[in-house]
Amino acid sequence: MKKILFVVTSHGTKGDTGEKTGYYLGEVSHPWEVLVDAGYEIDFVSPKGGNPPVDGFDLSDPINKKFWENKQYHEKITHTLTPEQINPADYSAIFYAGGHGAMWDLPNNTKIADIATKIYEQNGIVAAVCHGPAALLNIKLSSGKYLIDGKKVNGFSNEEEELVKLTQVVPFLLEDQLKQRGGIYEKSAPWQNHVAQDSRLITGQNPQSAKAVGEALKKALQQ
Length: 223
Known about the structure:
Elements: E1 3-7, E2 23-24, H1 25-37, E3 42-45, E4 54-55, H2 62-68, H3 71-78, E5 91-96, H4 102-105, H5 110-121, E6 125-129, E7 152-153, H6 158-163, H7 174-180, E8 184-185, E9 195-198, E10 201-204, H8 210-222
Helix pairs in contact: 1-2, 1-8
C-alpha cells in the first residue's frame, strides 16, 4: 500500500490585510482520519517545508483535536517536507488541503505541480478541497494539456468568497480560473457538501466537503 501525499500552504497572510491565514485544519484532519483509519500512511509537503501556518484552529472539533494530539502526525505536520525531499513513486495519491493561503503560493509552485503530474501519470489520484484546487490550475500533463481541462471540477465558489468578504483580497476568484483552464465547474449552494469526481481527479467545494473528499479518495484507491 503506497502512501498519500498531503500538500499544505506555507503562506500565512491574506494579501495586505494583515489578517492571518494558512492551511485550514479541518481540511487536513477530516480526510486524514478517513485515510489513516483505512490503513494509509500520510506524508506532508509544503512549498517551504517546516512548520506551516494553520487557520481554522478549532480543537472543539473532535477530529481536529484527535489529529492535533496524535504525536506521530503532529510531528509530521509541524515538520513538513520540502518538494525536493519527495519521490513521487512512493505515493498513490496527492491531496491539496485548502485554507486561503493556498491561493497565493500553490498555483505557481512548479515543483509540487511536477510531483502531482508524475503521481497522476503513474495511475495515481489527484485530490483537493476548498481553496486547494487553486494548486491544480497550472498542473500540465506530459501531453502539454492542463490536468483539469475537460474534467469535472469543484472548489470554493465565487458566492462563498463573497460571503466571507474576501473577493477583493484574494489574488483571483477560484471558480473563474477553474473554468478558464477548461474545467467543467460544478457547485452546490454555499457551505453544502459537494464533491466532483472525474476518474482520478477528485475535488471538494468547501470545508464541509473535506471528509467526503477523503472518503471518495479512499474508495478510488481501493478500486
